[in-house]
Specification:
By secondary structure, this protein is mostly helical. The protein has one domain: Amino acid/polyamine transporter I. The protein is built from 22 helices and no strands. Helix 2 crosses helix 14, helix 6 packs across helix 18 and helix 15 crosses helix 16. The protein is globular. The mean pLDDT is 92.
Length: 513
């Protein structure tokens, strides 16, 4: 068996795992979910979901990944096949390659927006209307910024095709080349080195923005202060706990924020040493991510929105989605403060680092599959996949509605399906005692025994409830869409699934020979 790469240092491994988890969702999606679901009312089910879903699944994925690495597999098909000697196992594991690949196809494009907006911000090219924010509605004030984003990505009409600007396409190519240049250099020389630089820099920039937000003066005619933003976020309206929508949103956010059910954590863990303390490493990864999301991400975005637009305005902005908050309202807020161009640049650079580390992490499962199962050299794997990603990305770049359709199936619904399969295969088929032994092997901290029962019973039950609820609440609306762009996206997804099935079949045929 070919000797596989390993992480150079433990801190490099933890930072790489944190870079995988800390992405655009921490600073864009989480604030939107919190604001749109009642602020403080959202935080209680969020932390409960973190304990019952986030931490258990984090440990399970670390356990599966490290075990897979010891038997020469860096991706879910091989890992599931090693855990469950059944011909179906490797095909179920396809999700661990397919889902991150689909997400990267559109995620790298979104990541490129942050680089472009950061550069345009520092040079003062973003809109700057000389209007008092308190004199008009938030939507009226934000319109120039919204129009700027829509013009940039070519979403100015409802036709089949989007018409992005040449600069949008250029920055997409630059971001893609940078990501695959890092991947080309390998686990230690590329991914680990990136995260040792990007993650500390990301936290430093977030702290700078946090200090600026806390000391933010309110616009003329507005008496709101940072304390009002904190109150909106942390004072819970307990009636919100009776809403299934709030609970589902909180549980869903845990998947996004920790990159669970993606396959990337398992792939990263496969490069860990045999007796790596994955209990402590997994907890450290989750803690770094939660600090970035709850303390930094929510404060920067929500507090500033409340100060400038009031609680109702912040909730209205959040209702427009993550792009509305990150690319529209935040630039508008920065434009009304001293040195706003600089702070806008810091904001978008922070997002770019968060996005780039996630792009690299989500690309690694496909690269590992080609290396481990086909025996390709890393250089060949990276170059072939880089070309494939370039071609595939034209679907979300130019087809109207494709990005949202791909995000639902790969970045929302598929995550929970794969996570459920992980728990069932690792804790029920492989065996709960074997799974628990694998997670706790080499641990320097004692995981409370209660988590054994949470992983075996509570977590899979929670996942089934989420799948049933989403199937009932969201699937009918998703499946009823019949626009041409939606069908193109679905055809694209089905084609990728067939390609993955064939690839896995070919790989295992080669193994038998």
């Amino acid at each position: 068996m070919k000797k596989r790469e390993q992480w150079g240092t433990r801190i490099g491994l933890i930072l790489a795992m944190a870079g995988n988890a800390i992405g655009l969702g921490n600073f864009l999606r989480f604030p939107v979910q919190a604001a749109d679901n009642g602020g403080g009312a959202f935080m209680i089910p969020y932390f409960i979901s973190f304990i019952l879903l986030g931490i258990p699944l984090m440990w399970i994925e670390w356990g599966i990944g490290r075990y897979g690495g010891t038997v020469g597999h860096g991706t879910a098909p091989g890992m599931f096949d090693a855990l469950w000697k059944n011909r179906l196992a490797k095909y179920i594991g396809i999700l661990g390659i397919l889902l991150p690949l689909i997400v990267v196809v559109y995620y790298v494009y979104i990541c490129s927006w942050t680089l472009a907006f950061g550069i345009t911000s520092i040079f003062g090219y973003l809109p700057h209307p000389n209007v008092d924010p308190s004199s008009i509605t938030p939507q009226e004030y934000l319109w120039p910024y919204k129009d700027h984003l829509y013009q940039y990505i070519g979403a100015t009409s409802s036709g089949l095709f989007l018409r992005p600007t040449p600069s949008a396409y250029l920055f997409f190519i630059i971001t893609l080349l940078l990501a695959f240049r890092i991947l080309y250099k390998g686990i230690v020389g590329g991914i680990e080195k990136l995260n040792k630089i990007a993650i500390p820099a990301l936290f430093l920039m977030a702290v700078v923005l946090l200090i600026r937000v806390i000391t933010l003066p309110s616009p003329v005619g507005n008496s709101l202060k940072a304390l009002d933003g904190f109150s909106f976020l942390w004072e819970p309206d307990l009636t919100g706990l009776l809403s299934s929508k709030v609970w589902l949103a909180a549980a869903g956010q845990i998947f996004f924020t920790l990159s669970l059910g993606m396959g990337a954590i398992m792939t990263y863990a496969s490069y860990a040493r045999k007796d790596e303390d994955i209990a402590l490493d997994g907890l450290s990864t989750a803690s770094l991510n939660e600090f970035a999301e709850v303390v930094l991400g929510s404060t920067i975005a929500i507090v500033s929105a409340v100060v400038f637009f009031g609680p109702n305005g912040a909730k209205e902005i959040a209702g427009g989605g993550a792009f509305n908050l990150g690319f529209i309202s935040m630039p508008a807020i920065f434009s009304n403060m001293p040195f706003g161009h600089f702070f806008g640049f810091i904001w978008f650079l922070l997002l770019f680092f968060a996005g780039l580390t996630s792009v690299v992490a989500l690309s690694q499962p496909a690269i590992a599959f080609l290396e481990d199962e086909f025996g390709w050299k890393r250089e060949k794997s990276v170059m072939v996949l880089g070309l494939a990603f370039f071609i595939f990305a034209h679907v979300p770049i130019f087809i109207n509605g494709a990005l949202d359709e791909m995000d639902f199936w790969a970045g929302t619904f598929g995550l929970v399906i794969l996570a459920l399969m992980e728990v069932v295969i690792f804790f029920w088929i492989f065996g709960s005692e074997n799974g628990w032994r694998e997670i706790t092997r080499g641990a320097h901290i004692k995981i409370p025994k209660v988590f054994y029962y949470i992983m075996k019973y509570v977590t899979p039950t929670f996942l089934v409830v989420i799948i049933v609820a989403w199937s009932y609440n969201q699937l009918p609306d998703i499946l009823s869409k019949s626009d041409s762009g939606i069908w193109i996206a679905r055809l694209f997804l089905v084609t990728l699934l067939i390609v993955h099935i064939v690839a896995v079949r070919v790989a295992w045929t080669r193994r038998r020979k």
